[in-house]
Amino acid sequence: MPASTIVVETAQQNAPLPSGMQDNDLPIDHATCSFVLTTPQAGTILLRVIHGGLIAELISLSTPVPSIRLVFPAAVLPTPSLFLWEGSELHLLLVTDIGSLYRIVIPIDGLNLWQEQIKNIWPREYSIRNLPVEQAKECMVHVQGTHCVAVSLPNGVLLRLEADSLGYDGNEGAFILFVNEV
Fold first, then answer.
1. Does residue 166 surpass a pLDDT of 90?
2. How far is residue 70's CA from residue 66's CA, in Å, rounded to a whole number?
3. pTM of the model
4. How far is 156 from 154, CA to CA, in rounded Å?
């Protein structure tokens, strides 16, 4: 069965178009980074970033559920992470090279996963104003959990982004920025 494709939008004004693949680049389906999540409720799910960083793909390694491909408006920085939230949602957190932090919430139904939930997937985008987009490819990202993302900048500054809520109480659930000089 073919993968379901979801195009993720950006609210960033004047975001540059993603750069095209070069002839000497890796094959488009070659993963530039990957992550594996294994839980009793969802089985084993492989997250891989493909197409030069523009697509995050979720593949069930435990069930025959078709994969999901999330197409982003900019390249995903290594390394995105995937979490199971309260047994009924997957949370994909990642940062793009135009300075956006995304939380993609994917409802799941046990081992049927996202098969009947594609229409209910919702992305949230947060702009990281302190991220130098001209040097974004040099930044390192570490997702510490559903509420915290750390980004190291080339000049040694560490940005720690923490969510005050996940938006289930009707509030947007913004990420709060903490800057630590290293």
1. no
2. 13
3. 0.87
4. 6
The token pair that represents 18 in the structure block: 């993603």
Residues 109-161 pLDDT 10s: 999 999 999 999 999 999 998 889 899 999 999 999 999 999 999 998 999 99
Select from 56, 60, 65, 107 the least CA-distant residue to 84. Answer: 107
Where does residue 53 fall: left (phi above 0), alpha (psi -120 to 50 degrees), or beta otherwise?
left
Which SS3 state, helix, strand or coil, does residue 58 take? Answer: strand
Nearest to 34 by CA among 24, 42, 46: 46
C-alpha 85/C-alpha 83 separation (Å) is: 6
C-alpha span between 38 and 44 (Å, rounded): 4
Residue 134 φ then ψ, to 5°: -70, -20
Q: How far is Cα of residue 111 from the mean position of the Cα atoms in its chain?
A: 21
Instruction: Give the Cα separation of 31 and 51 in Å (integer).
Output: 8
- For residue 79, whether the previous peptide bond is cis, meaning omega lies within 30 degrees of 0, is yes
Residue 37 to residue 33: CA distance in whole angstroms: 14
How far, in Å, CA of 60 to CA of 68, rounded? 9
Q: Phi then psi for 40, rounded to 5 degrees? A: -65, -35
- Which residue from 47, 28, 29 is spatially nearest to 37, judged by alpha carbons? 47
CA atoms lying within 13 Å on the CB side of residue 149: 33
